[in-house]
Amino acid sequence: MQEYFLAVDIGASSGRLILGWLDEGRLKLEEIHRFENGMTEKNGHLCWDVDNIYSEIIKGMKKCKDASKIPVCMGIDTWAVDFVLLDEDDKVLGDAVGYRDNRTVGIDKLVYSVISEDNLYERTGIQKQIFNTIYQLMAVKDKEPQNLNRAKSLLMIPDYLNFLLTGIKKTEYTNATTTQLVNPKTCNWDYELIRMLDYPEHIFQEIIKPGTSLGYLKEDVAKEVGFNCEVIAPATHDTGSAVVAVPSVYDDTLYISSGTWSLMGIERTEPDCSLKSKEHNFTNEGGFDYRFRYLKNIMGLWMIQSVKKEFEKNYSYDEICRLASLETIDSIVDCNDERFLAPKSMTEEIKKYCLETGQKVPQTDAQTAAVIYNSLAVCYRNTVEELEGITGRKYHSINIIGGGSDADYLNRITAKMTGRKVYAGPKEATAIGNILVQMISTKKLSGLKEARKLVQNSFEIKEYVSR
Asked: Where does 4-237 sit in CATH, by number?
């Protein structure tokens, strides 16, 4: 019988359940269910509807049953940093507030009154993002202390979904590192730091590595979906899963996981927690097999996703790329400026930035898109140069994976701006990486090298040459 593996891949704008299986030495995929996702305003905050996410997962699993394609195991990945607090009855305290909410504005000062920003980086190796869990928890402590006082458990979003399926509370390593509360040497919670910040120690669950089995579905869940299967924690941070699917067997591969965010960097076996690394805003996020994803968070296609909603015409992403390629506007914005994190209007924010910096202000949808794509390419070029300066290595090519890998115009100008050859694909890297970890865990694949060779042999990889 065919063995199916189910990836539950939930992003900031949509979620999908994708089945994967081996067929004559190639990995095949089938999307079984897709649903919309996003933050909505609730009680004055931008929140995730975790109940709806869970119900959509159940719907997708039922579709597996209806299609007679029962997975032997499944794994969930989502975005990072966000969490829920559970009370003694395992009920969610408060709301599942999202990382784009403004509750952490100014909260960093409270953290730095306990530990300096430099010392925090040297201790954790994680770049400052105002929405990191460490700041979100401080916001809860400052504004909703009753919830932190009542909390018995803290679970990252994918860990909470796993708990609903299995009844098991664990925290997967790759997502745990994005809290900025993990020691990169021990790969465990930094309890001394947690005590310094006066966060309750008991709420933090045991950290498990990617590929760990959480057992099987709870009896009531199995009855509802019509089957039982093993639940495996992949790299539950979606970028951690995506990087597993980089189609290169070389250790020093430079990649961009391109989606709502652009995560650009390399894999390392040791973290770099130096102040030089901090100055360039690189982070040491946990990866598969306790590797470190040494990368920079770049605002990414969030900017395109935002202006797309504001354009008068409902363009496809391919149309936006094509129209942008016809423009000659050379204005550049700083993609990493916090003003672009959650503006009321992305289009107006870009215009204001260009006006304030004395550049040509985009007047059309196509010009606005061109400014974003060109700005991303410039940011990629600068990041390559910074990486080479820090590591002392030369990177001759860039692997772009994820949903943004099919943005043809962006790929072309990335090759041009960086002077590097660009390899684009696979598009479904996150789901693929999720499935690969399941296959490694169940001994269908021997390890990371065989998994990445499988990606090379299974999916089209487009090549763009610098001109």
From this structure: 3.30.420.40
What amino acid occupies position 184? P
Catalytic residue (one of 9, 190, 238, 406):
238
| C-alpha to C-alpha distance for 164 and 167, rounded to whole angstroms | 6
| Cα(135)–Cα(179) distance, integer angstroms | 9
CA pair distance 141, 403, nearest whole angstrom: 36
pLDDT category, 250, cuts 50, 70, 90?
confident
Q: If you ran DSSP here, which 8-state letter would residue 167 be given?
A: S
Pairing of strands 14-23, 26-36: antiparallel
| 370, amino acid identity | A
* Average per-residue pLDDT for the chain: 96
Percentage of the chain lying above the pLDDT 70 cut: 100
Domains 4-237 and 248-425 share a fold: yes
Indicate left, alpha or beta for 400 from its phi (over 0: left) and psi (-120 to 50: alpha). beta
CA-CA distances (angstroms) from residue 46 to 64, 97, 102? 32, 6, 8
What the block records as the tokens of 125 is: 């190796």
Domain 248-425 carries which CATH code?
3.30.420.40
pLDDT of residue 220: 98
Distance CA 293, CA 142 (A): 32
Rg of the chain, C-alpha, whole Å: 21
Spans of all domains in the chain? 4-237, 248-425
Residue 238 among the catalytic residues: yes
